[in-house]
Structure formats: C-alpha cells, structure tokens
Specification:
It is built from 14 helices and ten strands. The chain is α+β, with helices and mostly antiparallel strands. Helix 2 packs antiparallel against helix 4 and helix 6 packs across helix 12. The structure holds 3,4-dihydroxyphenylalanine (DAH). The site of 3,4-dihydroxyphenylalanine has 12 residues, from strand 9 and strand 10.
C-alpha cells in the first residue's frame, strides 16, 4: 500500500469517528460507536493498524507517526463526547430541581434626575407649556449676547465657563466663541427666533409658552452642593398682557403639584408658597430670586432658594424680533438637582453622579 493511500484511509476514519461520537444521542449509541472505532479486537482503528504492515518500508516511520496522532485524536473525541453526555445527558436533566428559586432578574430604573425631569414636564404640560430642547454646545449670541449680557459682563469670564477650543481665554475674546452652555436661558432665544422666522412679514410672531430641561455646565469644584454639570428647568411665557402675578401663580402651582398633596414628598402643600426677593439678571427686568417655603409637618418651616425669574427684558424681546410695546413675558430658571434632592432628602449632589447602584436603586 502506498503512503498516500494509507494516510487518506486514516484521515477518513478520523473524520467518521469524530462525527459518530459527536452525534451519538444516548449512552448506548456512544458505546456502540466506541466499539466500532476503538474496539480492541474488530475495531476499525485496529484494522487500519494492521494495514501498517503493508506500507513500503521507507514510508513506515511517517505512517506510524500519523497513525499514533489519529489514534489519540479519536480517543480524545470519544472522551469529550462521554464528558458531554455526563453534563447534559439524561441523568443531568433528571436531577433538575424545579423548586430551586431562579436567579433574580435585575430590572433597571430611571435615574432620580430623569424621574424628576419627567414629572416636571408632566406638570408644566398640564399648565400648557411645551417642552423643547436646545443644544448643549452654544454660541456667544445665544448664551450671552441676545440675553442682554454684554461683552464686559463678568458672567462671560473664561474662569466661569467651559469655552471650547485650544485656548479658552482667547476663545472668550474671539468673535464668536463656542462654549458648553452655562444656562438653559439660551433656549428662550432659540425658541423666539424660530417663531419670528416662521412668521410671515408684516404679522406679529405667535405667543410662546415653553419649558426647557437640560444640562448646563460651569467649572465649579464639586462639593456637596456644586457640580460642574447640573440640570435646569427654564420656563418662558410671552403674550399680550403677561404680568408678574402670572409668573408667581405658575411657580406656586408648579411647586404645589410637584411636591404632591398631603406631604407625599415630605411637604404639606396646602400652605406651600413662593416668595420673590428682588435680584438682578441681565435678561429680566424686574428680576427676582425664587424661594419656596417648606414645612416638615411638625411645625418647623423655612424658605429655600430655588432659582431666578423675572419679566423678560425688552432688550431681549427686541433682540429676537418681538415687539416689547406689544407683548410682555416672564421667564424662570430653577435647579433640577435642588428640587430632586429636596424631594428625596439627598444631601450631597455628588451622590447623584457617582453611579453607585446601591445608592441610585433607592429611588
Ligand atoms: N439663567 C439663570 C442662571 O442660570 C437663571 C434664570 C434667572 C433664568 C432668571 C431665568 C430667569 O429664565 O428669568 O442663573
């Protein structure tokens, strides 16, 4: 027999043996396959081995070497099939105990800030405010200029903003720097601009009633009450005859609805009030700080600062193409984290962003 013939009979035997072991569906079938290929007397491997004697003498070492390799291969395939039958075969399924409790399924949940944002949208939606989004990378016009914040204003300081680009200080002085928005008031400008752009020439732009919720960025060092990224809710209402009384009513309704009735979120809302303190923002005139009062139900009360608000400055209305002789408006901006933390009794803002599920899964 030539070496080529011998080697090819070896290879086809190896293939058949591997296939037979792998497809054996029971312990009996596997044993039958073992006898067929590895049987000590009439096994096929044995027979091939006998053929070794007929190979030319010069080819014997190569033929013998390959025979040993194939024998090992077939034995290993058998052992593997045997092992698999043990793990997944009938015996293992018979031993399955249906009364053993399963692995608990871990269902995720919404981040507390996301929950707060959704609820705020819900409440303001019922008051007729449409939620809109704006970009987090802003230009100078929307973050400052159109909001009546002139070039000389300290709010533009490179130390107080995340300007984009290689040299932040140069960016702040360039013609149109880009930055991570430092406030959601930018969206007021974008919305009013879009309304004016959609208004046919000679007609008045439509009234506006929007909120915008999203991230803002300031280079603050993180501590219990500061974080370089946080969220704001911005509100804007522009129409004929809007007054500060409207602003106060909307804010009071908002806080009352958010903190629920009967102190659901730890507040007793019947006597929940909003207090305005005179303040200054370039884009509102007059401007106020907004405080919310709280009571712990045991007679203890206090005021807590929630954000800023005011009547939209005529300069802002003019900048975007609304006529301040025709319409007035109010605007407010509140911190989402502060409201969320107040609700849950969270005392350190950093806990919200460390992504420790043991903390977050409580809410
Ligand atoms: N943008 C202000 C801030 O981030 C908050 C604010 C104040 C928003 C007054 C307003 C507003 O809309 O009228 O500090």
């Amino acid at each position: 027999m030539s070496l080529v013939e011998f080697l090819s009979s070896l290879d086809s035997l190896a293939e058949q043996a591997q296939a037979a072991f792998a497809s054996a569906s029971s312990a009996d079938a596997l044993e039958a396959a073992r006898v067929e290929f590895l049987g000590a007397k009439g096994g096929r491997l044995r027979k091939v081995q006998q053929g070794l004697g007929k190979v030319d003498k010069a080819d014997k070492p190569a033929a013998g070497k390959r025979f040993n390799e194939v024998k090992q291969l077939v034995e290993t395939a058998f052992a593997a099939a045997q092992e698999q039958a043990k793990d997944g075969g009938e015996t293992a399924s018979e031993a399955f105990d249906v009364s053993v409790p399963g692995e608990p399924v871990c269902i995720g949940r919404l981040h507390p800030i996301t929950q707060t944002i959704r609820e705020m949208k819900d409440i303001m939606g019922r008051l007729g405010f449409t939620a809109v989004e704006g970009p987090e990378i802003e230009d100078d016009w929307h973050n400052f200029e159109a909001l009546n914040i002139p070039l000389s204003h300290p709010a533009r300081d490179p130390l107080d903003n995340f300007y984009l680009g290689e040299a932040a200080s140069a960016a702040a002085e360039s013609d149109s720097p880009l930055l991570l928005r430092s406030q959601t008031s930018t969206v007021q400008i974008r919305v009013m601009e879009a309304c004016v752009a959609a208004t046919p020439a000679g007609e008045s732009p439509p009234p506006v009633r929007i909120i915008s919720l999203g991230r803002v960025y300031r280079p603050d060092t993180a501590d219990a009450t500061h974080y370089p990224m946080f969220h704001q809710i911005e509100g804007l209402l522009v129409d004929r005859g809007v007054t500060m009384a409207d602003l106060k009513s909307v804010l009071r309704l908002f806080f009352q609805s958010y903190f629920g009735s009967d102190g659901e979120k730890g507040e007793h809302t019947d006597d929940m009030h909003v207090r305005f303190r005179p303040s200054f923002f370039p884009f509102t005139e007059p401007s106020v700080e907004v405080d919310m009062n709280w009571t712990d139900g045991a007679g203890k009360t206090g005021w807590m600062e929630m954000g800023g608000a005011g009547m939209v400055d005529p300069n802002v209305l003019r900048a975007v193409g609304y006529d301040p002789e025709e319409v007035t408006g109010f605007a407010f901006g509140l911190g989402v984290e502060r409201i969320c933390m107040r609700q849950h009794g969270i005392t350190d803002i950093r806990d919200l962003y460390q992504n420790d599920v043991r903390f977050l899964s409580q809410f």
